[in-house]
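User: Can you model how flavin-adenine dinucleotide sits in this protein?
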Amino acid sequence: MEFTFDQADEMFRSQARAFVKAHLPQDMAERNRRGYHPLREDTRSWTRILYAHGYSGANWPAEWGGTGWSPVRQFIFDEECLLAGAPAVDTAGFKMIGPVIMTFGSEAMKREYGPRILRGEVFWGQGFSEPNAGSDLGSLSTRAERDGDEYVINGRKIWTSFVESAEMIFVLVKTDPEARQRGISMILVPREAPGVTIRPIHDIGESHSLNEVFFDDVRVPVSYLVGEEGKGWTYAKFLLENERATSAEWPRNNANLQRLRGYLQETQPDGRRLIERPGYARRLASLEVDLAALKWLTMRALYEKRGGHNHLPMGSLLKVRGSELLQKIGEFQVEALGAHGFYVYPDPLGDEQVQQRWAPGSDYAPGAMADFMYRRATTIYGGANEVQRTIIARSFLEL
Ligand SMILES: Cc1cc2nc3c(=O)[nH]c(=O)nc-3n(C[C@H](O)[C@H](O)[C@H](O)COP(=O)(O)OP(=O)(O)OC[C@H]3O[C@@H](n4cnc5c(N)ncnc54)[C@H](O)[C@@H]3O)c2cc1C
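Assistant: Here's the modeled complex, given as structure tokens:
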């Protein structure tokens, strides 16, 4: 298999770069270069801008209303967006539930949600994990019982990211409590449906993106069932494969490492640039090699998916390599910042005045520790890395 960036792709890169330069609002870029979670409003406006120019749905085929770009072009576009500081589009919509709906959903569901995801009108929470069902997702116990034309949902989900500002939640439920995986279905639930209660969980990085979600006699029409009853496990596996591939986050790894390189090149605490110190140079070079390997693995995965060759557990491979690299880059960022790396700068998005209270230090410092803290979770979310290693081992050993 050969992946090359030919002249046409390089021209596409120039166009993408020019587009982002012309249309990405500078204040948005400034906010997103730091390590804090993007504002939902920024993600929404950026998606609207992409849509207006025919660039929404970089990873969607043209028949779904997406760009229909080749894997190389998707890759280039994501890379250029993240490097310029654009907020990532809603992963849960574009990369998780969107492809599930467009592949397995009813025609009415496709018509309802496909265009709204592309226009940035609907954001999603992923209601899979429960207090007693994380890695062992098959043992989930949230229940959906059929009552005429409705399902009545009862149960509790946990770690539901960004649901506090989402419109919809896609939830895995048991429609047959006696069966294990074959008793699982996937249902869409409006966040504001009566009986849905959201309780925030504050994380170690002093930000809020995690939640518990309680379902108490929540009623939704049967048309909110995705595909067929009892097939939720199949759809979840399809979705998780996409989620894991996305968790490799090549564009984010690339943007973070380039920023770090810039900092090491500019900073001279004792008259000598940090990048000239052998320990720093060696460590940077080693991360750059890892990044290059991740780039080619990501490209290979994109091509294999398009060609329908899914014989390797690519999602798991990408998840392990990408998540661990994000953590290694984060550790280096924090250490290179010295004393300023250990200060958790408050999120400037929460309070307009807060920026003035930042401790002195490099412009590079705010957000570094917050991102480092959040990225501790990359080896857990999307399926813990220990479990991914078992999947990889089983596949290679043909167990
Ligand atoms: C920041 C963050 C965001 C998240 N966002 C979401 C979200 O939006 N929606 C959602 O549904 N979930 C979300 N999750 C939940 C996430 O998917 C689970 O935390 C993850 O699947 C692990 O499940 P668990 O927490 O129950 O841990 P457990 O499954 O209890 O695992 C605990 C430890 O045991 C190890 N372990 C478990 N089983 C095995 C095994 N078979 N072999 C080897 N080791 C094993 C794990 O690797 C882990 O180290 C999020 C989690 C985090 C931290």
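A couple of observations from the model: The two ends are 26 Å apart (CA to CA). The chain has three domains: 7-89, 124-229, 247-397.
User: Helpful, thanks.
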